[in-house]
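Open question from group meeting: does this chain pack into something compact, or does most of it stay loose? Before anyone orders reagents, we agreed to write out a predicted structure and look at it together. Recording both the input and the output here so the notebook holds the full record.
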Amino acid sequence: MSWIAISDADSQHYSLNGLDAGTPARARQGEALRRGSLVLETRLSPDGRPQNLLAHRVNTPEKRTLSFQAIPGGGIVFVLHQAGETTHAVVDLDSSERADLLRITYSWDVSKNWARLAIERPETGWLTTTLIENAQPLFTDDIRSMTLAPQLLQMDDDVEFFAVSDQIEPLGPMPSLDGLVPIVCQGRYKPLAEIRPGDIVETLEHGAVPVMGKIARNVPARGSFRPVRLRAPYFGLQQDIIVAPDQKLVVSQPMVEYMFGCEAVLVPARHLVNGTSAIWSDNHLTKTYHQLILPGHETIVAAGSALESLFLGRMRRKPERHMASLLAPVARERLPEHLLSAHQVLRPFEAITLVEQCAA
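Structure tokens returned:
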């Protein structure tokens, strides 16, 4: 089981048995959830104004408060007060990039007296964490109240969603392809979910290469995880495929060289949503994504289009980052090192212009 609550401005969902799994709950209603994570995604005010991103307060049977605030100067303040004790953490941010989407994750494990506040920029891969000494859980009554009684919750308009899991949610590189996306594997198209480590896939740069690993994760279908449907025949696709917003396509058309002076560019799927060639796919509450780990961060052939595989950078040299990620079960020495792609990543207005010109 994982996600027990997901809420945004339009819908609220809560179940102690899990929103998709339907498995026995780890805690009863009214008890503390002794292990879990609260995740929220937000954009910060470009004018630097203070924001009460998320705030919840109850006075019975005891006073309990929870708040996430963005403060002028580029910082996130987290406060959790209950049973006369206060858990507090502050994370400084680079104020020059305040408009970026942030993913804020508070994770806790009371049995280990451990808690962590993490801030990520999903669009760039930037990540910072701070450990919290006084680990405190969330109570299931409070989680239900936050989710199903939005009038009792203060949530800034810039918050895209919040969700609560009964797991320590991983940080860092995330999968970004639907399991049904067909990948050229050993000479034929094969659904990504069926590909295994050791299989041979076709890449643009190095031809046939072995799959070194594979990751999958079930996430809220909101914010940076909101599914995008890329539609055929655009982008060379032979069929529609579902990807995460930050999945990058490698686009190499004559118009690319004319507009940008290079053979190919990278375009995040979120920049392609225009109601025609790419649309939001909002018929999911949660979504399971998959991705492949290849030796050199090669480009895979998916349904006729070229897509980036998982980028690891130098994670193998960073033990703490490795242990906090989905790749923790894999020995660091078995992970490849990846160099940044040589291709330019298009900004939103550049991607929009390219799609319009290619469609003209």
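Observations to bring back to the group:
The CA atoms of residues 71 and 117 lie 16 Å apart.
The chain has four helices and 29 strands.
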